């Protein structure tokens, strides 16, 4: 997950370096790509696609964090239907009572991750997503953007003046989408830090609760070295 976040962050910065409105030459991958101007001020470029990929990758990490929590705490939820907003509940679809394996845990970082989840909307709800289900005012819009990117058609535009809203295509002004991508990256960065701290606390708790006769083997993992590090 850390590597995926670093990749999403890099994609975001590369997108900013290849912004469609600056004076830099276009990316070679855009050469001879035949596109038609749909007259709604579209922003078609490798830079725009990198921005979209950064958003999708970062938002997807929130689901992966939920999947990790589901496995680590043995919550028993369907691994194909978990999200960070609903993973805390005995019934993720109704979200009325906390899961018994989580409710009484004395883990401040895990509680922080729980409250951070209120800044997003989940997918596994019994009814349609309600904007009041989240604390952050932009949560519903971020969720709409994610669903549009994954399942529908979201066109990034240079501006939205005169854009049609009745043609089945959703549009987002590219500068606004940039700010929304920054917000998702911030949320994921914080979520990963809280997850790491929460897991450290859980492992230390397990260590403290071992009996005095427990056999504990220490192991030190080497730092991962890529093949080209030695070149």
UniProtKB/TrEMBL annotation:
Q: What Pfam families has UniProt attached to this entry?
A: HEPN_LA2681 (PF18733)
Superkingdom as given in the UniProt entry: Bacteria
Domain (LA2681-like HEPN): give its ranges.
1-202
Q: What is this protein called?
A: LA2681-like HEPN domain-containing protein
Source organism of the structure: Salipiger mangrovisoli
